[in-house]
């Protein structure tokens, strides 16, 4: 595990490295969860099997033991600092995460120089509040995006667009109902 300084306290990077990898995938957790979420574990295993190294990132608020997510500007600043501090120079950088972590990855993709974004259960809007859309966060991404989304996710279903693929799986926001489908989608994205 690596501890990395950020403007908002230390973050932790959990490495899952592959010898000779030319690509690294940096993944963040959801607002109330951690890096052991089943979909993050499945994505990490699939990436490693595809020859891609992975860093699972714990945001500073989680490292400090807080359960409530920090405000978006703090999350983004910490994420950008983490990506700059990882030993990944010369590697193709992909970023992503689940839920809140996917939002952070989208908002910072250009700033960190990402070549692609992997979103697991992107929360398009708060449950029951489609008017509070977060679609601009997706539309601001200028590199290819893969969104893996449960068909009955109460946070909504993001639309497809040029350079944005949406894979619909049975299940909800947890993405636990179709791990094989999740793994296939990630494998295709990395392939």
Written description of the protein model:
- This is Alpha/beta hydrolase.
- By secondary structure, the chain is of the alpha/beta class.
- It has one domain (2-190): Alpha/Beta hydrolase fold, catalytic domain (Rossmann fold, 3-Layer(aba) Sandwich), CATH 3.40.50.
- The chain is built from six helices and eight strands; from the N terminus they run E-E-E-H-E-H-H-E-H-E-H-E-E-H.
- Helix 1 (38-49) crosses helix 6 and helix 3 crosses helix 4 (100-112).
- It is globular, with a radius of gyration of 15 Å.
Features:
globular, 8-stranded mixed β-sheet, alpha/beta, 191 residues
Describe the structure in brief.
By secondary structure, the protein is α/β, with parallel strands linked by helices.
Question: What's the SSE blueprint?
Answer:
Blueprint: E1 2-4, E2 11-16, E3 23-28, H1 38-49, E4 53-58, H2 60-63, H3 72-85, E5 92-98, H4 100-112, E6 116-120, H5 135-139, E7 145-150, E8 164-169, H6 179-190
Q: Please state how the strands of the largest beta sheet are arranged side by side.
A: 1-2-4-3-5-6-7-8
User: What is the CATH architecture annotation?
Assistant: 3-Layer(aba) Sandwich
CATH class: Alpha Beta
Oligomer: single chain
Main pleated sheet: 8 strands, mixed
What count of domains describes the coordinates?
A: 1
Distance between the termini: 27 Å
Query: Helix- and strand-based class?
Result: alpha/beta
Number of strands: 8
Mind telling me the C-alpha Rg? 15 Å
Q: How would you name the CATH homologous superfamily?
A: Alpha/Beta hydrolase fold, catalytic domain
The low-confidence runs, each spanning 5 or more residues with pLDDT under 50, are none
Q: How many helices does DSSP assign?
A: 6
**Order of SSEs:** EEEHEHHEHEHEEH
Mean of the pLDDT scores? 97
CATH T-level fold name: Rossmann fold
């Amino acid at each position: 595990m690596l501890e990395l300084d950020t403007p908002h306290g230390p973050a932790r990077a959990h490495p899952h490295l592959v010898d000779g990898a030319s690509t690294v995938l940096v993944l963040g957790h959801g607002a109330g969860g951690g890096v052991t979420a089943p979909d993050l574990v499945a994505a990490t295993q699939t990436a490693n099997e595809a020859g891609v190294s992975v860093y699972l990132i714990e945001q500073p608020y989680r490292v400090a033991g807080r359960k409530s997510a920090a405000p978006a500007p703090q999350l983004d600043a910490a994420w950008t600092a983490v990506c700059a501090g990882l030993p990944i120079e010369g590697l193709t950088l992909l970023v992503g995460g689940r839920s809140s972590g996917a939002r952070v990855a989208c908002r910072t993709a250009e700033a960190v120089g990402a070549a692609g974004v992997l979103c697991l259960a992107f929360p398009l809007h708060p449950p029951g509040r489609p008017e509070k859309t977060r679609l601009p966060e997706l539309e601001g991404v200028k590199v290819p995006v893969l969104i893996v989304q449960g068909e009955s996710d109460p946070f909504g279903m993001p639309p497809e667009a040029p350079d944005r693929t949406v894979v619909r799986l049975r299940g909800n926001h947890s993405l636990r109902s179709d791990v094989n489908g999740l793994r296939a989608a990630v494998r295709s994205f990395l392939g």
